[in-house]
C-alpha cells in the first residue's frame, strides 16, 4: 500500500511556541490580518490574496473556538473548529503562516509579530481599531480592503437554514 505524507500546507500552521522563529524566517514587508474565517468563501479568498499583494508575506491570526464565543456571533458558532479553520487558511496560496489566538482581540499576538502592515476588510473602521493604533507605534501601516464580493458566513448560514 502506498503511504502518503501529510500535505505540505500543514507546515504553515504555526504553534504559538514556534512563532518567534517562524516570523524571523518570513520576508518583509510582513502583512498581518486576523479573523474567524468560519466558513471560507470567495470574499475571504479574494481579500487574502489582495492582502498578500501589499507585502512579501502574509500571516493570519485565527480566533480560537473559545475566543469566537466572546464575539457574539451566536451560540452555535464556530461551525468549523479551530483546527479545521487553520488548515483551510493554510491551504491558500496567498497565506504564508497561520497562528491561533485565544483573546477577544489579536492585540497581544500583534505585539509579538510586529507586522509592517495590518489589514482588515472594509466592514471595519480601520482607524478606530486598537490594532491600528498599535502597529503605528513602530511605524507600521493599517489598510482596509474594500469588499469586491458581497459574501458572509452569516448570510451563507441563513440560506442553508431557511
Ligand atoms: N466578502 C468579503 N470581502 C472581503 N473581505 C471580507 C469579506 N468577508 C469578510 N471579510 C474579511 O475577512 C476577515 C474575516 O471575516 P469574517 O470571518 O468575519 O467573515 P464573515 O464572512 O463576515 O463572517 P461572519 O458572517 O461570521 O461575521 C475580516 O477581516 C473581514 O473584514
Ligand atoms: O472575523 P472577524 O469577526 O472580522 O474577526 C474579528 O476581528 C476583530 C478585529 O480585529 C477588531 O478588534 C477581532 O478583535 C476579533 O477577535 C476577530 O478576529
Q: Could you explain how this protein is built, in words?
A:
It is a single chain. The protein has 162 residues and is an alpha/beta fold. The protein has seven helices and six strands. Residues 33, 35-38, 43-44, 47, 73, 120-121, 123-124, 147, 149, 151-154 line the site of adenosine-5'-triphosphate.
Summary keywords:
single chain, globular, alpha/beta, 19% strand, D-glycero-beta-D-manno-heptose 1-phosphate adenylyltransferase, transferase, 6-stranded parallel beta sheet, binds adenosine-5'-triphosphate, 162 residues, 7 helices, nucleotidyltransferase, binds the ligand O=P(O)(O)O[C@@H]1O[C@H]([C@H](O)CO)[C@@H](O)[C@H](O)[C@@H]1O
Q: Measure the end-to-end span.
A: 45 Å
Label the structural class.
alpha/beta
Strand order of the largest sheet: 1-4-3-2-5-6
Biggest sheet descriptor? 6 strands, parallel
Number of strands: 6
Percent in helix: 25-40%
Categorize the overall geometry: globular
Outline the fold blueprint.
Layout: E1 13-14, H1 19-24, E2 30-35, H2 42-53, E3 57-63, H3 65-69, H4 82-90, E4 97-101, H5 107-113, E5 117-121, H6 130-136, E6 141-145, H7 153-161
Parallel strand pairs: 1-4, 2-3, 2-5, 3-4, 5-6
Keywords: ATP-binding, Carbohydrate metabolism, Nucleotide-binding, Nucleotidyltransferase, Transferase
EC number: 2.7.7.70
Organism: Polynucleobacter paneuropaeus
How would you summarize what this structure contains?
The protein is α/β, with parallel strands linked by helices and 162 residues long. It has 7 helices and 6 strands, in the order E-H-E-H-E-H-H-E-H-E-H-E-H.
